[in-house]
């Protein structure tokens, strides 16, 4: 027995402090690139965005590379951009939200119909729309966090329910631009623009950027943000470490619903009309997921930067407008976007290999 | 001799008549438990003996069907690990409960983040990253884990031993009354295990009692002051490692040998 008991003495006696030292085994250029991406996940989409703008600038010259065109891209991506901000929150918790576009359309319809059918002041209608968005988010959040239904299924259902409710509530009516201008200018507020040089910034674009800055701050510098990442990374570990997982999920889904309602307001400003059949209701979810994935956020949750989603949305916008101006068949856009998605996820797998 | 000394002392954490059933399986069968101040109590038992259930009942991870838990003589009812933590009981789970993609500092303060003083903290909820990083660095170097250079590196870039070290440091930093360690050396190499055992002794020398769940008899016999042998959902006996051999302990926990009556 005695002999067997002492088998660890060799290490016991030696005072070794550096057995657990950090050697940088990942040497070489590739290793350093991987490390940089691991620390700064929004770097790749930013580089792709800059390259794409430079490429189309070279091909199309002044026509593309002007303040007017570049800010036009921002205007074209503002709705998807806001939806992508909302989608980012859900994807960070390892979920997915198929209902973002539908919530946006229903919220815009509620804002419009409250004003025109029920005579509520437009400012109050907007708040009612926000409340509805947050409310739908709360339902999804409850189903995901308490009843433990997978987010994909919950939001697949909510998407259909909300979209149908939207058509039923709106009676398939569209509120026209002239009526909005005459009676409810507040609904069109986000369509206003400021011009700086040749650049056109609509209030909607500015709001989108403010949303990203606010969420970027909240995710990086507040306890809530750290909890969102922890819940997406490993919910059980987060729970044991003292994070209230259910409450975090609930807050994420409610905030997402609210931001979707904001996207509804942005839609009214962008289209100058309120229509229940806006395409956002059907494809807004896929568009926002595309932006988020191209933006380098991991669908497995807990990884990525929200700015990546903004860059992702802008990459799609640059390709769409650039290829259209170059006279290419629009199908080329979809083909390129498809390749980007697969490339982005492949890159995510490589970055995450660092943990192996 | 210290058997007498201990019996006069009041246990800091104790369980009485704890029962926990999962369907038809009785994981805890009227189990008693006592942890005394300043000691390392090892809990050993065969797989399925109910060690984990006992620990979970003490740390708030499960709620026992019946029975009481006392902390410093007062009855406590933990509904969650957060409750137990609030009362000063820190648990290092076998899974470590860390978020791999987040930094060491983030992980140490998960669920109890420090906010900046003033408006930035109270209104905007801004975290005081500097203070958290300094604290984390201090705690790690206090326990001799100074070789972790960058407090902001992701936990997933650490080795198994380093992760365990961070988890123990987290528990030692915040656990004011009791620290529970669940299989701290199970996933580690020989050298890393040594370091963790040194950490455990170091924590005890600060006066914090430790519950150590382990399968590794040499480790248990090396550091434990008393050994709680768990069998068939209850405490079979408590032995002093100086009076028995490892073979005796294994024989007790597997039922190959009758338990000593005096314990």
Automatic annotation (TrEMBL), chain A:
Main location (coarse class): membrane
Gene Ontology cellular component annotations, sorted alphabetically: plasma membrane
Subcellular location per the Swiss-Prot or TrEMBL entry: Cell membrane
Annotated transmembrane regions: 42-61, 82-112, 124-144, 151-170, 198-219, 249-268, 280-300, 307-326, 332-351
GO molecular function annotations of the record: transmembrane transporter activity
Source organism superkingdom: Bacteria
Pfam families per record: BPD_transp_2
Membrane topology summary: Multi-pass membrane protein
Keywords: Cell membrane, Membrane, Transmembrane, Transmembrane helix
The name this protein goes by in its record: Mannose ABC transporter membrane protein /fructose ABC transporter membrane protein /ribose ABC transporter membrane protein
Naturally occurring in which organism (per UniProt): Pacificibacter maritimus
TrEMBL record, chain B:
Keyword presence, Nucleotide-binding: yes
Keywords: ATP-binding, Nucleotide-binding
Domain of life: Bacteria
SUPFAM superfamilies: P-loop containing nucleoside triphosphate hydrolases
Molecular-function annotations in GO: ATP binding; ATP hydrolysis activity
ABC transporter domain span: 13-257
SMART domains: AAA
Keyword Nuclease: no
Signal peptide location: none
Name of the featured protein: Mannose ABC transporter ATP-binding protein /fructose ABC transporter ATP-binding protein /ribose ABC transporter ATP-binding protein
Higher taxonomy: Bacteria, Pseudomonadati, Pseudomonadota, Alphaproteobacteria, Rhodobacterales
